[in-house]
Structures are given as structure tokens and as C-alpha cells.
Specification:
CATH topology of the largest domain: ABC transporter transmembrane region fold
Strand order of the largest sheet: 6-7-8-3-9-10
Helix content: 55-70%
Oligomer: single chain
Shape: elongated
Number of strands: 10
Amino acid sequence: MGDLKRLARCLGPYRRDLFLGAFLILVETVFELIIPVLMADLIDVGVAQRDVPYMLSKGVQMGLCALLALVTGLLYAQFAARAAYGWGAQVREAEYARVQDYSFANLDHFETASLVTRMTTDVTVLQNAINGGFRPMVRGPVMLVMGIGLSFWMDPELAMVFLVCAPVLAVILFFILRRVAPMYGRLQQMVDRLNNVVQEGLTAIRAVKAFVRGTYEEEKFQAVNTQLMETSRKTFRTAVLNLPAFQLTMYSAIVLILWFGGEKILAGRLEVGDLTGFLSYVLQVMNSLMLISNVFLMLTRSLASAHRVAEVLDEVPTLTSPADGITQIPDGSVDFENVSFQYKAGAQTSALSGVTLHIRAGETVGILGGTGSAKTTLVQLIPRLYDATVGTVRVGGRDVREYDLRALRDAVGIVLQKNVLFSGTVRENLLWGDPEATDEALWAACRTARADEFLERMPKGLDTDLGQGGVNVSGGQKQRLCIARTLLKHPKILIFDDSTSAVDTATEAQIRTALAALPDVTKIIIAQRVGSVMGADQIVVLEDGRVHAVGTHQELLAGDPIYQEIYASQKKGGDGDGQTA
């Protein structure tokens, strides 16, 4: 319940709609409970005495109560829908905003498919709990209390039946709920797994077709889909047991009341109209018990979804800006002082160990190393995508943890190893770098990144639609657009994480030449090709998360065996620049 209370804070302006809806339910219930009293008078007085005006009067009163109950019910539906879907929108916005505050370390705690499920399916479950469950949650207890009270007022002896039937139903429902509660949590986990398979299959659809693995993917989807089906079947097969339990209790109560009521009528101690009205209250009371049982089932599922949503909202971002963070970065110098890093606290091995590096502002630095040498991890510490576990990372002579996060990341332009473009036009993607950029500035960045070569051949130029994820351009074109987007930030530090791997060597050389014309920008280039970093002011060779060697191309070629091996392997069949043919 604590998770639901936590999420109730998201109601905001919709709290008023919820309270109005609750009030309308109370009014509707009162009108419905008056009808059996009027019915008893109509039968015992009007019918017994054949008083037609009296019967018409009671009939009109009953019709008026029914009409007012209908009107208040319709008004409730309007307020409840507004509260439910407004609340759902607020919860989704809160979740999405929280995810934007996450660091990479926080994102490692959740699978992407799970986050999607928590923002869609789980929130829908909560919405349905309000839209479909709030009415019975308020109406059920009111009808139960008032119905039993009026039943005792009409005939205390017959009302004793409730004291027997209600506990029986309560015990049955308790065992059902205790069994079904953990099932809802497992059900949502299965939805996570299904979404994960779907997302992975659609994202990698080109690879699936290229390797002719469509049948394998279908079988994988069928397996997880069948697991979800079986989990759902088992869960709801248990949940619906409340219906036969309710029916058994209700019909048993009706039989007992008719039995004892019939005896009292024969003995002259009860009127037929009173028994008819009493049976109406019996049905209302039993119906309220059914409503309450459904509310408990809905609440049980809502608690599972609320807990999953609350996990997203309660996740504390591992990286935050200091209270009085520095907003001005003096220059693009970067220093690593005995830096070590672990992706998880307490890990047996560190991704980085004892790294000490000094990069002056305006320098061009190349980083080489084998797969798994932590090249990407190293540069991700500069804009604080992660924080160093041990040691200090400085930018502009100050610890990166002293800077305002937004200011720091605005000063660091990073082209990640996995290039990402968004649905929309080239212009819309480039404006991520500078929302105020003019067409002249956009084309200037594209010329530096050599993206103008293919954009000028496109009929719509900057207004060319890229499709979802940039599917309408090649890998090399995508890389050049990502470089242009980063250049538009006018950063003090430019980081290229193997971001020209899909570009031909001639175009890469042109990009390097254009970047060299940015003298006040520190350039850090992670590359696989020696030719990409030969002209750098210094080259860093990483091995197993440690700095193996630092020097210029000539210094490393003369004295470092790892660099010599990399150079020799790429020079075979290549040109004198050390580039592969």
C-alpha cells in the first residue's frame, strides 16, 4: 500500500475529480438503497389495500430514485475517467522524467524492455484500477454497511444469516488472494520478457534476415509467448475462483432467507412485501461483497504494478550536480589522477586500474588498445557518464564532480561508439547540437564532418527524412551526421569513440584535416586504425584497463612492442601511412 500512496502524490489537479467521483458514488448508493423500502411499502400497503394512487405515488418515487441514481452514475464515470487517465499521464511523465535523470549506472539496473513495460502496461493496470475499481471500492463498503443496517432494521432474525455467510466468503477470498498475489508480479515479469524479445527482434531485423534466422526468432518468440500465456492462464484461473465462491455464498443465503422467511410469513410474523424488500437488500449486500472481492483482486494486481513503477521513481541517480556547481569550464585540459573504475561496487576486477594521464588544452590525443582494454570506459568518465571509483578526473583543472552536470556535458562533445539518430529530418537531428543554429551553421558543421558530400545529392538536403533510427542512410553517413551534430555544440573537448570506423580512409583523412583547424578544442580519438591517430600529439596505449604506454607515433614505434605489433599488422598490404588497404 505504501507504493500506491507514493504514486497517489502524482494525482495533482486530478485529486478534485477523484473526490467528486467518490461523493457521487455515495449519492448514487443512497438512492439505490431507498428503492427496496419504497417497494416494500408499495406491496404491503398499496397492493394489499388496492390503493392505486398510493401505488402510483410509490412508483413515481422509485422511478425518480432510479433516474437520479443513473444521472449520478454517469457523472461519476466522467470524473473517474478524467482522474484515472490524468493520473496515468502524470505517473508516466514522472517515470520518464526520472529516467532522464539516471546515470549510465542507474540504467544498468533496468532492462530497456522492462522500463517500457513499467511506463505502459503497469501504468495501464493502475489506470484500470481507478477507472474500474474506484466505484466498487467506495460503493461496496457503503452498500454493505447500509444494506446490513437496513436488513437488521427490517428483520433482525433474518439478518443473522449475514453473520454466517459473510465470514465464510471472507475466508475463501483470503486464501485466493494469498495465492494469487505473487502471481501478478511474475505475470508482469513475463510481459517484460516478451517485450524484450520483440524489441530485440525488431531492432535486429536486418541481421535476422541476413542470417536467415527468421524461423529461430519465431520459435524464440513462440516460447516466451507461450510462457506468458501459461502464466496468465494460471494466474487468472486462480483469480476467478472468487466468482463461484460468491455465487455459492449468495445462493445459500437466499435459500436460507426464503426458508426462514417463508416460515415467518406462514406464522403471520412477516409480510410478503417485507420479505421482498429484504431479498433486495440481500442481493445488494451480496453484490457489494462481490464488488469488494473484485476490488481486492484488482488491488492485488495494482500493488504489483505500483511496486514496479515505484522502483523506477525511487531509484536514486548515482550522479547529481553539486548544490553550487561550477558552470564555466576554463579550458579543455583533461587530467586523470590514479583513476580506477568498477561497474559494480565490490566487483572482483576493475575495468580501469591506476590510470594517470595529462592532456593539455587543444591537444589531439589518440587512444589505442585491444578489445576490452576499457578505451570507451576511460572517455566516459570525462563528461561524468560514470564517476571514477577511485582517483580524480579533472577538466579545466577542476574535479569534474565540482561542475554543474549540464554545463560539463555541454562543454564535452562525445560521439559514442554506437551512433544514434532519431526519427525525423537531418535538420531536426543536427539541431540537437544547437537548437538555435542557422542553416549556414548547419552546413558548416556538415562540411567539417564531410556530410555535405551526400546531403547535397539529396533532393531535400537538410530536410531529408532519416526514417526510424536513421535507416535511410548508410553506416558511414550516419557517423558523419553524428560528428556534425556534436560539432554544433562548439565543445571545448571533442571525443570520438571509434566514430569513423565505417568511413573510408580518404574521407577520414579529410575529417581529420578539418578537425585540425579547430586549435582551441581538445580532441580525443579512440580508433582501431593506427592511421587515424598517427598525427596525434600523443598516443595512449591501453592494455587490460591500464596505461601501457604514452608517446608520439615515432616514440612508440621505436620503443613499444604492443604499438609495433599493431602497426605491423596494419601496415601489411597498406600504404606508408600505416592504413590498411
